[in-house]
């Protein structure tokens, strides 16, 4: 049985064999410990792409519908129901894959919707519905993730075989999952082969140390409805899956309904911030105007004082001149006697 499990787990790229975690690691190797996953997404920048920002839909996230025997019975039932809803939604939106759901929900297989596109200069086949989201991701990666620039070497998209072995449907079969560099970005909790990888054996402070792709890629993908499976118990760092609303990817289609509340709250915060900025700018302008007014008033008063001083000086000068004139005009009278006697000289 164990050998059979090892054989099944021999999928090295994006190995989604979740149950094979129980396979014993090779001699001398420890089973890898789960790495901490930082919750460090930076504030979303203003969205200049053609797509809406959107979050993955909760009912589509694997961890939210995985049931196990440790959970209370009603919780298990709730999760199984959620899983059925997720299968139905994926079938309706992306195609019917044999063994999952009902062909009445969609007469086409996911391959019917598959298109070959270029993503970051590499070819990949994905479901056509998510192509606009991938294009927005690429535009934003090129604009934002420049330090350092990461150039992927290999991508993996749609698959015609399910790579989960525990009865779950991999999102690769619907063409809505993308693996980035499956040999460089680890999946330490997937299969034994990954567990032996040096990056998985190392004790790390963050899961980012177990991949080559920069965290900036994770942040950008996550803004456009993709779920990063690095957050999952598998710690599949290479894997992004589109779990947003495929009918509201482009801005022209309006905000995704599941985001309405969050977006309204985001907008309210943004408006409040803008109002605060406006108020601060107005206060600053008023302060500058008051300062300028005070300067002008001071200049006016100084000018008045100067004018008064000039007037005073002029008056004093005038008075002095008048006095001088008065003194001078008295002098000839005093000398009059001399001038009378002068003609004889
Ligand atoms: Zn994958």
Describe this structure in words.
It is a single chain. The chain is an alpha+beta fold and about 350 residues long. It folds into 2 domains: about 1-255, no CATH class; about 265-325. About 40% of the residues lie in helices and about 5% in strands. The chain is built from 9 helices and 6 strands, in the order αααββαββαααββαα. Strand 1 (about 115-120) and strand 2 form a beta hairpin. It is elongated, with a radius of gyration of 41 Å. Zinc ion binds near residues 14 and 177.
The ligands bound in this entry are:
zinc ion
The total beta strand count reads 6
Sheet with the most strands: spatial strand order: 3-4-6-5
- Broad shape: elongated
Q: How many domain regions? A: 2
Main sheet summary: 4 strands, antiparallel
Q: Could you provide a short overview of the structure?
A:
With 345 residues, the chain is an alpha+beta fold. It is built from 9 helices and 6 strands, in the order αααββαββαααββαα. It folds into 2 domains: 2-253, no CATH class; 265-324.
Keywords:
4-stranded antiparallel sheet, two-stranded antiparallel sheet, disordered C terminus, alpha+beta, binds zinc ion, 345 residues, disordered N terminus, 2 domains
Provide the fold topology.
Layout lengths: L1 H7 L53 H4 L7 H22 L19 E6 L2 E6 L3 H14 L10 E2 L20 E4 L11 H4 L2 H4 L13 H9 L2 E3 L10 E4 L17 H75 L1 H6 L4
Antiparallel strand pairs: 1-2, 3-4, 4-6, 5-6
Bound molecules: zinc ion.
């Amino acid at each position: 049985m164990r050998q059979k499990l090892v054989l099944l787990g021999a999928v090295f790229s994006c190995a989604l064999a979740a149950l094979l975690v129980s396979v014993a690691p090779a001699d001398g190797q420890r089973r890898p410990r789960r790495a901490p996953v930082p919750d460090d997404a930076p504030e979303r920048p203003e969205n200049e792409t053609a797509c809406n920002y959107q979050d993955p839909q909760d009912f589509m996230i694997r961890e939210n519908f995985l049931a196990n025997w440790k959970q209370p019975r009603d919780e298990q039932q709730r999760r199984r129901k959620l899983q059925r809803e997720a299968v139905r939604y994926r079938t309706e939106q992306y195609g019917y894959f044999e063994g999952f759901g009902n062909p009445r929900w969609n007469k086409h297989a996911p391959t019917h919707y598959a298109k070959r596109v270029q993503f970051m200069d590499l070819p990949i086949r994905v479901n056509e519905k998510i192509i606009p989201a991938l294009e927005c991701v690429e535009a934003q990666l090129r604009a934002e993730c420049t330090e350092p620039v990461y150039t992927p070497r290999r991508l993996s998209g749609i698959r015609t075989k399910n790579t989960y072995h525990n009865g779950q449907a991999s999102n690769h079969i619907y063409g809505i999952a993308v693996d980035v560099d499956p040999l460089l970005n680890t999946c330490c909790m997937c299969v034994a082969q990954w567990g032996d990888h040096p990056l998985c054996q190392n004790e790390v402070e963050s899961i980012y140390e177990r991949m080559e792709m920069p965290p900036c890629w994770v942040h950008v993908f996550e803004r456009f409805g993709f779920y990063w499976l690095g957050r999952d118990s598998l710690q599949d760092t290479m894997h992004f899956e589109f779990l947003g609303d495929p009918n509201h990817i482009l801005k022209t289609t309006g905000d995704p309904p599941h985001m309405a509340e969050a977006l309204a709250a985001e907008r309210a915060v943004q408006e409040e911030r803008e109002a605060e900025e406006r108020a601060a700018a107005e206060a600053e302008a008023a302060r500058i105007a008051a300062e300028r007014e005070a300067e002008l008033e001071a200049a006016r008063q100084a000018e008045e004082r100067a004018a008064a001083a000039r007037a005073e000086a002029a008056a004093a000068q005038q008075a002095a001149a008048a006095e001088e004139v008065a003194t001078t005009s008295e002098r000839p009278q005093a000398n009059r006697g001399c001038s009378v006697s002068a003609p004889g000289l």
